[in-house]
Design a protein that fits this description.
Elements: H1 4-16, H2 18-41, E1 46-65, E2 78-80, E3 84-86, E4 92-102, E5 106-121, E6 132-148, E7 153-161, H3 162-175, E8 182-197, E9 200-214, E10 218-222, E11 227-238, H4 248-271, H5 278-292, E12 297-300, H6 304-307, E13 310-313, H7 317-327, E14 331-334, E15 340-344, E16 347-351, H8 366-370
Parallel strand pairs: 12-14, 13-16
Antiparallel strand pairs: 1-2, 1-4, 1-11, 3-10, 4-7, 5-6, 5-8, 8-9, 9-10, 14-15, 15-16
């Protein structure tokens, strides 16, 4: 809550800087109006954004049939989607690759080609891309379809004798007398898509890989079961207004508030009530000056005889408090005449607030004036009528 003194100072500042304040409020009013209009107008703006248009899904299902007698799996048992298979009892891996896409609409031709791949690559597992020393590949399956719609699937199946593949890889390596790099075997499927998806022409090739790792008795299979890939495109979308955190209502309120403030200031300036009067300033200053020195002031009524002693006029209440400190006395505020006194022996130091400096003396009841009052100034007096003690 703003105190009276701050309120008076604020009014004085507004009066002194009236033209500057008016210009500032006019600027805020224009800013509020422009911002509110711009926020509403910007609702129709658009910007370029990247959005998901459609997606594809490709993945492998794999398994092996037990072909040799053993103590664990009966012959003919279907082992499926295992991370590791036993080469001695189930050497032939059977797999199916399935492709599909998801979009609002589409009509494409899809060609799936599975290649058995043997290659030697750089020994640098931490690198994202490794150098390829040599590679051989053989197509083991190929299937095509026309008019594939969203949600429909197209698949191709193949089989690989993993121990035989591993043996072939070692023979190639020995034939090249190659001891560098890492030997890898895999089945790589290329999905070629051509047609129209979601109204856009499409001609692309996606590659999926099923890695095979043989270690004499077992072989491991690592392949995606359902890898989703997203196709994005740029399109125009509606965006919110450029007014930041201020909505149209807030900006409009800023403009209206500025106009209202201009009106209030103008009326107050015209009526002469904007700037505080001199009397009001003096009253406020006197009140706060009185509160500032309250610890040094006592209220009471001085006898007429004391007020008639030799008087020394003091210009300010602060100066009178300094006198009281020097004399080791208190400042006495006479509740009848409004003046402040410091009684020191036969001398009386007096401060008269604004409006009493003309020597005005408030009317005092004669009977009250004759009553002895102890004022505590330390001066001698047998009858005690003007006797004082600190």
């Amino acid at each position: 809550m703003i105190s009276d003194r701050r309120r008076v100072r604020l009014r004085s500042a507004l009066d002194e800087w009236f033209v500057v304040v008016v210009v500032a409020l006019l600027g805020l009013a224009l800013l509020g109006g422009w911002g509110a209009y711009g926020a509403v107008a910007d609702d129709e703006d658009v910007e370029q954004r990247t959005v998901e248009a459609w997606s594809t899904t490709g993945g492998f299902d794999h398994g092996a049939t037990v072909q040799e007698e053993n103590e664990v799996f009966p012959v003919g048992t279907e082992l499926s989607d295992r991370s590791v298979y036993f080469a001695a009892v189930a050497p032939e891996l059977e797999a199916t690759f399935t492709y599909a896409y998801d979009a609002p609409d589409g009509d494409v031709a899809v060609s799936l080609e599975a290649d058995r791949v043997i290659r030697s690559v750089e020994d640098a597992d931490e690198k994202e891309e490794r150098a390829e020393y040599w590679v051989t590949n053989e197509t083991i399956a190929q299937d095509e379809t026309e008019g594939l719609a969203p949600g429909e699937e197209h698949a191709t199946s193949f089989s690989v004798d993993v121990p035989e593949l591993a043996e072939e890889a070692e023979e190639i390596r020995d034939g090249l007398n190659d001891s560098t790099g890492t030997l890898e075997t895999a089945v790589v499927v290329r999905a070629s898509v051509e047609g129209t998806i979601d109204g856009e022409p499409v001609d692309r090739v996606d590659t999926y890989e099923m890695a095979l790792e043989f270690d004499e008795t077992t072989y491991a299979v690592e392949a995606p079961a359902a890898e989703e890939r997203t196709e994005e495109r740029t399109e125009e979308v509606a965006v919110a207004g450029s007014s930041g955190g201020f909505g149209p209502a807030a900006l409009a309120l800023l403009g209206v508030g500025s106009v209202a403030a201009l009106g209030v200031l103008g009326v107050a300036r015209r009526k002469g009530t904007l700037a505080p009067s001199a009397a009001e300033l003096e009253r406020i200053d006197a009140r706060y000056e009185r509160e500032e020195f309250d610890d040094w002031i006592s209220r009471g009524s001085l006898p007429a005889a004391v007020r008639e002693r030799s008087r020394i006029e003091i210009a300010t209440l602060e100066d009178l408090v300094d006198v009281a400190v020097d004399c080791d006395r208190r400042v006495l505020e006479d509740e009848r005449d409004g003046r402040y006194y410091v009684v020191d022996g036969e001398a009386v130091y007096v401060y008269a607030p604004e409006g009493l400096e003309d020597g005005e003396v408030l009317e005092v009841d004669p009977q009250e004036a004759e009553e002895p009052t102890v004022i505590g100034d330390g001066s001698g007096g047998e009858d005690g009528s003007d006797e004082s003690a600190s």
